[in-house]
Amino acid sequence: MTKHAAPEKQMVRIGFNPLTDCASVVMAAVLGFDEKYGIKIVPSKESSWAGVRDKLLSGELDAAHSLYGMVYGTQLGVGWQKRDMAILMNLNRNGQAITLSRRLAEQGAVDGATLAALMQSAPRTYTFAQTFPTGTHAMWLYYWMAAHGIDPMRHARVITVPPAQMVSNLGAGHMDGFCAGEPWGHRAVMDGIGITAATSQQIWPEHPEKVLATSAEFARAHPNTCRAVIAAVLEASRWIDASAANRMAMAEIISAVPYVNTSKDVISARILGHYQDGLGKSWEDPHPLRFHHEGAVNFPFLSDGMWFMTQQRRWGLLKADPDYLAVASAVHQIKLYREAADMTETPVPQGVLRSSTLMDGKQWDGSNPERYAASFSIRQ
User: Fold this and answer.
1) Using N-to-C axis directions, what is the helix angle for 23-30 and 244-254, rounded to 10°?
2) 98 neighbors 178 (Cβ within 8 angstroms)
3) Do the beta carbons of residue 233 and residue 344 sit within 8 Å?
């Protein structure tokens, strides 16, 4: 293990939104993994993804639990000022859900195919919410709808709602469904106001989800601090995934008011892979929310970042194809990650691209992003 210089900044303020997948950042601080690497992580609860972005750019936050696509949207200047960003690591895979209202379920819409049939047979304005225009949840929602023949840009109204406000807005009848991170999908099921129509891992098994992000400026000025943060969060990720008992202990801690602020049972079932859809169906999910998985989760594959750019291009958020590989190579701090992985004895994959097959049978491997982005029949 290589010895590295001391962190340039000891107190590191890391933003998060109240979601189950903020757990590795929170647990790195709670369990003291940060102190092992000469830093103190101060978790900062935020109320929206736009707030996270703004505080990252102003320097109020040093780093943040972030949406993959939000980082790329900022990097490419989609809907906001263009600023160079840095992804330090992936925080988790899987564990998000598309929820439909109980009212839609009673009309027969319980999955993608039946939703498409209902929208065709009973035309009106159907409203669905995602958590940020360029974010992961927007992309999962659009991909899922389009795979069932629904054009999200033409056949529906899509709005942006912060994750923790999804359930109350669904209950108030402001929308017909939403895509968000847990525990809010399960909360809607437990409250009897929504049903789980799809999990994100049904859309893309082992998909990338949140990342640990910072500005490129911060990463350049504080490489030792960034390396220490990655190492601390890697250790916390490994600890969470080590046992069901650790996951339950994590659920107890993050359910508290300073973090997710919900009951522990809303969090604990799905992190153990126990799913129910609100319609009487239960299953053990083979692709539950993962935080480490022997390091496979945490490596910032370039192809993961490139996929989000292909979808932003697909939906007209990007008006032209970027240089996908060059942009991802600039954003992903693979050298820092490898060094932190070495410090924590975390396995690192050989390559920087990986291959996946999504729900519509399309394969993504990062090899020809321009062709991939243009290959969808439903696109802008």
Assistant:
1) 90
2) yes
3) no
Span 157-169, pLDDT tens digits = 999 999 999 999 9
How many angstroms separate the CA atoms of 141 and 177, rounded? 10
- Give percent of the chain with pLDDT exceeding 90: 98
Q: DSSP of 47-98, one letter per residue?
A: S-HHHHHHHHHHTS-SEEEEEHHHHHHHHHTSSS----EEEEEE--B--EEE
Q: Do domains 11-92+207-273+288-373 and 96-203 have the same CATH topology?
A: yes
76 in Cβ contact with 218 (< 8 Å): no
Cis preceding linkage at 347, omega within 30: no
Q: Which of 220, 235, 239 is nearest to 34 (CA)?
A: 235
Pairing between β-strand 356-357 and β-strand 363-364 as defined by DSSP bridges? antiparallel
Cα distance between residue 19 and residue 244, in whole Å: 19
Sequence spans of domains, the chain = 11-92+207-273+288-373, 96-203
Residue 350: predicted pLDDT: 92
Q: How far, in Å, CA of 257 to CA of 246, rounded?
A: 20
Superfamily of domain 11-92+207-273+288-373: Periplasmic binding protein-like II (3.40.190.10)
Helix (H, G, I), strand (E, B) or coil at 294: coil
Instruction: Provide the pLDDT for residue 1.
Output: 62
> Using an 8 Å Cβ cutoff, are 233 and 212 in contact?
yes
For residues 54 and 63, give the distance between their C-alpha atoms in angstroms, rounded to a whole number. 12
- 96-203: in CATH 3.30.540.10: no
Question: Which residues sit opposite 98 in a β-bridge?
Answer: 179, 198
177-184: average pLDDT: 98
Task: Please determine, for residue 364, whether its predicted confidence score (pLDDT) is greater than 90.
Answer: yes
Q: State pTM to two decimals.
A: 0.97
pLDDT tens per residue across span 288-344 = 999 999 999 999 999 999 999 999 999 999 999 999 999 999 999 999 999 999 999
Instruction: Indicate whether 202 pLDDT > 80.
Output: yes
Per residue in 223-239, pLDDT (tens digit) is 999 999 999 999 999 99
